[in-house]
Design goal:
Elements: E1 7-11, E2 32-33, E3 36-37, H1 38-48, E4 53-58, H2 63-68, H3 73-82, H4 85-93, E5 99-104, H5 111-116, H6 119-122, E6 127-130, E7 134-136, H7 143-153, E8 156-162, E9 172-178, E10 184-192, E11 203-211, H8 215-220, H9 232-241, E12 248-252, E13 257-259, H10 263-275, H11 281-292
Parallel strand pairs: 1-4, 1-6, 4-5, 8-12
Antiparallel strand pairs: 2-3, 6-11, 7-13, 8-11, 9-10, 9-11, 10-12
Helix pairs in contact: 3-4
Length: 296
């Protein structure tokens, strides 16, 4: 149990330009998904998997992230005076979710650089990385399974998901070989956003990683790649090709994933999650059915 992974790193320094002007003064991670900011879903997922030590990699104008996971005494006092204990409980919940830490990325030099900024906090132990654009349905197991695979194989583990081949150019794509476990594959190759029509598979990397600490040394030596950024995918490929620290394995996820990094998918995520809630679904579902019947 002494080797159990407890640390999660959440890169959150992006500008969120696809959601302008909403993100002009508010971090994209604070955009609400129904009635919780997207970032809270990610932290809750980490905590549910036993990762209570969370480091967020932030940037300028991201103070709202820290505020959200801190106390807001004036609001709490007002709700208590009103006797609105249901909302007070929701407000206080995020205060105690995890042991939260923050560090700024500085220059926006890519995901690999953001992960590298976690080195001093993480130290020489495995850790998880969760990207805020990917929300994994709490009813489906992914991160816990990845932690199991890391513990049993002593290797880096990434999350994979089958995507439409026509959209493969939007992802990091993995070529793999099977293992004795139906949901686990060994990574043989990785390519970040291949030219459309050239992808060697439709297994895409989604935003969950369990990394060996050797990734930091590799990232230090990784030159800028696609977009002139330090790509985490390039460093993972070096781990896989050279079998560093056990190589790289993938867990193929077949559950529900919500992409909040794209405007249309963000709206879909809100609708999908809302219709399944006991407090919103009964009213929302018949309205959606009625509304859908009016569309061509």
């Amino acid at each position: 149990m002494g080797n159990r992974i407890t640390k999660a790193v959440i890169p959150a320094a992006g500008l969120g330009t696809r959601f302008l002007p909403a993100t002009k003064a508010m971090p994209k991670e604070m955009l609400p998904v129904v009635d919780k900011p997207a970032i809270q879903y990610v932290v809750e997922e980490a905590v549910s998997a036993g990762l209570n030590d969370v480091l967020m990699i932030t940037g300028r104008n991201k103070n709202a992230l820290e505020n959200h996971f801190d106390r807001m005494t004036e609001l709490e006092a007002t709700l208590e005076q009103k006797g609105d204990f249901q909302r007070l409980k929701k407000v206080e919940y995020s205060n105690h979710l995890a042991d939260m830490h923050y560090v700024r990325q500085g220059d926006p030099r890519g995901l690999g650089h953001a992960v590298l900024r976690a080195r001093m906090h993480v130290g020489n132990e495995p850790f998880a990385v969760l990207l805020g654009d990917d929300l994994i349905d709490a009813r489906d197991v992914l991160l816990s399974r990845m932690l199991e695979v890391q513990a049993s194989r002593g290797a880096t583990v990434i999350a994979l998901m089958e995507v439409d081949p026509a959209s493969s150019h939007m992802y990091g794509i993995a070529t793999v070989e099977p293992t004795e476990d139906d949901d686990v594959v060994r990574i043989m190759g990785l390519e970040e956003k291949p030219v459309q029509g050239t992808a060697k598979s439709n297994l895409a990397i989604i935003g969950r990683y369990v990394l060996q600490p050797e990734i930091f040394e590799v990232l230090e030596r990784t030159p800028p790649g696609k977009g002139n950024e330090i790509q985490l995918t390039d460093a993972l490929l070096k781990l896989a090709n050279n079998n560093i620290a056990g190589g790289v394995y993938g867990v193929v996820f077949r559950g529900r994933r919500y992409d909040t990094g794209d405007r249309v998918d963000y709206i879909k995520a809100i609708v999908q999650l809302a219709v399944e809630r006991d407090d919103l679904g009964p009213e929302l579902r018949p309205w959606l059915q009625s509304f859908a019947s009016t569309l061509d």
